[in-house]
Structure prediction request, 128 residues.
Amino acid sequence: MPLNIKIQQVDKHTVKIILSGQINSDTYETLDRQINELVQKKISTIILDLADVDFVSSAGVGAIIKAKMSLMRYYGELALVNPQPQIRKVFDIMKLLPAMNVFASIHELDQYLARIQKRVIEGEELYQ
Prediction:
């Protein structure tokens, strides 16, 4: 099954990538290239919407980890939203959930981002 990718510009530095299909050894390179292009364009926050992803292989997980590492080099962020239960389980089994920003919905992600911004405004350290 192919991987379909739809890009939505959220703001100047944020892009939402809506994925559907499978992220596997046949499709992960397409996602990898797309993310690399966005990083080169100085996109600092990428939101991967996984609502319509029904399978992810180790190659797919590797591409997502690589994306996170690429963004971290430029102080950027990668967030995963709307993962189906089987996709969330893959990240759980691989013990990646604490290291990845995985959110059940865009609403949950927005709440997280609002808390961070409030802490910055109030002068608190982010990593307390």
